[in-house]
Each structure stands twice: as structure tokens, then as C-alpha cells.
Amino acid sequence: MKKILFPTDFSEAATNAFVHALEFAKAVNAELILLHTFEIPVYDSQFFPENYAAIYSSIELANFEMFKDEIPKLKTIAMERNLEDIVIKHRLMDGDLIYNLKNAVEEDKVDFVIMGTNGISDWTTFFVGSNTSSVISGVNVPVLCVPVDAKFKKIKVIGFTTRYREKDKKELKEVLKIAKKMDAKVRSLYVKTSVSDVTPETVKEWEVEFAGENVEFLVLPSDDVKETILDFILYKDIDILTTINHKRSFFESVFSSSFSKNITKEVSIPVLVMHDN
Known about the structure:
Blueprint: E1 2-7, H1 12-28, E2 30-38, H2 52-80, E3 88-94, H3 97-107, E4 112-117, H4 120-128, H5 130-138, E5 143-147, E6 157-161, H6 168-182, E7 185-192, H7 200-209, E8 215-221, H8 225-235, E9 240-245, H9 248-254, H10 257-267, E10 271-275
Parallel strand pairs: 1-2, 1-4, 2-3, 4-5, 6-7, 6-9, 7-8, 9-10
Antiparallel strand pairs: 5-10
Helix pairs in contact: 4-5, 4-10, 8-10
């Protein structure tokens, strides 16, 4: 059985993403591991010599009580969707979110990370900020990012952006496996700019290799890559956009502030970030 790590702060964005995580777990036959982290403030023990341990204990207890109170709410959501059979485990950890998340991925041999994002500012931070850049570069598993406004609907079409590199085939095969379990089709997009170096022969080779799969290959000529991807999402009925995290500079370019603003405002769909290693 596969494992999905779901970091949560029990916010609206996280609760919305929890529904996506449940449905994703059902589709790929996975269990959910809920991760909640909290940071204990640093106190100077010389000023609190007697109460030092009590302060830390009270903070830990408060977080445990909050965690304990929130879990039944999530189980209720699962029951309402007839997904109470999904196995849900829990991790309550003190310390830095990124550090704990990386450790949890390794220790629990996690296959996917699913997390909520809070909209425009958070998407900008998520895709180009140091925190999520650290998550994406620090874990070798796909990360599904769910905007707070992306309400769950049945996944019928998964978008896959590619530059037709040989190693992109591995990620496409993984996406096709996910699509098959969801009874969805895959639409692959390559934006051919005036400086593109992909030949028609390469595109044909891919079409032949994946001829037996439920995938459609689209090559759209344009020098405005971001706008073309947005049009692709809007006009090709994309329910999840898959992108491969090549180099950070490429990632920053595609998910710049203005583009992420358009995604959250106009289409608001989850983005699945794959890795090219």
C-alpha cells in the first residue's frame, strides 16, 4: 500500500486539501499520514529557572490537545464522503516544518506529499519561496499542491507539461499509472517557442512509444509559455496540472507571481510537481 504524507495546520486551506488527499488515497490505494508540527519558542532558562520545563510541557500539551480535538473533524469529513475505510495515521512533531517533513518522508517511505496552499500570496511563496523550494528540492516524491479555492471534483483529465527530454518519459509513465487508477486521460503539452530545439521526429517517437496509452500529445507554438499553459488548462479541461521540477530558474519562470495569480484566480486547480531524477 502506498503512503501519502499530509502536512496540516488545520486551516481552511489544509481542510480543503484533506478532501483531495482522501480521494487521491482512494484512487491510488494509499494510507494517509497526517503531519502536524509546532515550534516551541526559545526561552532563556536563566529567567525561568523553575518554570522552564513546565513552560515547554504546557506548550506540548496544548498542541496535543488541539491535535486531538481536530482529528475527529477530519474523520467526520472522511465519513461524509464514504471514505472512512482510508487508513489514517498521525504524526505530531515539534520543530521546523520542512525539517520534520523531510524526515517523515524518509522514515515512513512516503510516496506522495499533498498539501494545501492559501491562494495568491501563498502560491507565490510556495513556488518561488525558500520554504517550498526546500520541500520540493528536499524530497524525491511527487508533491500535490492544492489551492484553497480548488474544490474537489472527479479527475477526468490530467495535464502533463514536458520539454520532450528522454528522462521526462519516466515521469509521464508515473502520471499515466495515476491516470489509469482514476480512469482519467492525460493531455501532454509542449510549448514550442522560436528557440525550441525539439524536432518533429522526437515528438513522433514519443507518440509511437506511448501509442497504447490514454495520452494525447499537443504541441503549441508560442513564445508566451505561461499564457499558453494557462490557455491549455482553461480550454483543454485540465483538472490537475503536472509539471516536472527541472531547475529552479525554470520553475520560478513558469510560476511567477503574475502567473500563479492567474491560476488561482481563473482556474484554481491542483498542481502535481514531479521530479526529474
